[in-house]
Design goal:
mainly alpha
Amino acid sequence: MQINTRLNLMSLLPIFLLFTISSYLLYIAYGKYYKAQELKSIVQNNRVLNRVLNEIGKERGLSVAYIATQDRAVRKRLNKQRLKADTGDWRRLRRRLGPN
């Protein structure tokens, strides 16, 4: 082998190793980024779901109070709570989760 060929080979080998290692690290970083984006979406859905379940719990409590007392004031509050539970975050959650 000539000296120019050896020099070229010696300079290309570290460049190839550097490229291979950096490509691997980039692949790992992208995988972590993708996973973080998935988790971010799940956390946002859980926040909305928590609010929806809270409103449904309030409605359940008012339903029990109305069944126990048959009071008109409780009935009015129950109707307001039903409207709030049906129209608020519930629609936002359904939009976020899609048609499935």
